[in-house]
Fold Alpha/beta hydrolase.
Amino acid sequence: MPGFSHGTVAVQGSTLHYVRGGSGPPLILLHGWPQTWWEWSKVMPALAENHTVIAFDLPGLGDSSIPSDGFDKVTTAKRIREGVQKLGFTQVSLLAHDTGSLVAYPYARDYPNEVTRMAVLETPLSGFGLEDFYGVSFHLGLNQTVAPVPEALIDNDDVSTYLGWMFSGARYPDRIDQAAFFQAYASPARRGAGYEYYRAFAADATNNQANATKRLPMPVLAMGAEFTFGPVVANSFSQVGDDVRGVIAPDSGHWIAEENPQFLIDCAELFFGPAGTPAPRPELATCVA
């Protein structure tokens, strides 16, 4: 994309790939599964008008190297934080989706003075509601199954079928660059790394519950899509944060950044922008900084 550049930064146990552009206060973007930094491509140019936007590939995914262990979200958050600091930033805002939101939480919880604001999209938190949805989609169970079960069941020829089925649940599947993500998970090693994030869910839940007294002090925007999680995201994060603002992304399924990018841009510009800027329309009221 014009105005953006690729880079890598070495962190303990991994090398992180990122895409960076813009100028201003740093805004860190963390993607979900089965995606990469590319899920943010429709919103990054607008966000970069007022922020230094840095979209990371999570360790093991996209073009980041695959660590030998440490796919729990606390370890992943430490790796992302190390990458952020090596890029020269000590205080950031976070915008995260799906698995990325599960990483953003311990980042903000364990380093509260380093996170000014956080927006989490389309997932309840492990230990605080995510488990209630394991029966909604079989991938949540399959991906957590001990190795090498999912690795053996999903081979290279099955990637477009499996991930295509995932994306078919979108409100607007054609708005998602599915081919890019099929390619990103064409490697068995990349698929295995993705499964490891799910296999760590139980440990994540235990850690989150044990540390729930460390309540999030910063403003948290908890966004659910109209046709998937809706208010569930805010209900979950309200159990661990003191200033959680729930918002519903209209006319969107799970992949808000691609299905309704303009709403996400409008909301993010308010939430991460100057305090007191009025919402231009009612559905953005809780996005105001």
Remarks:
- The mean pLDDT is 98.
- DSSP finds twelve helices and eight strands in the chain.
- The domain at 4-132+203-287 is CATH 3.40.50.1820 (Rossmann fold).
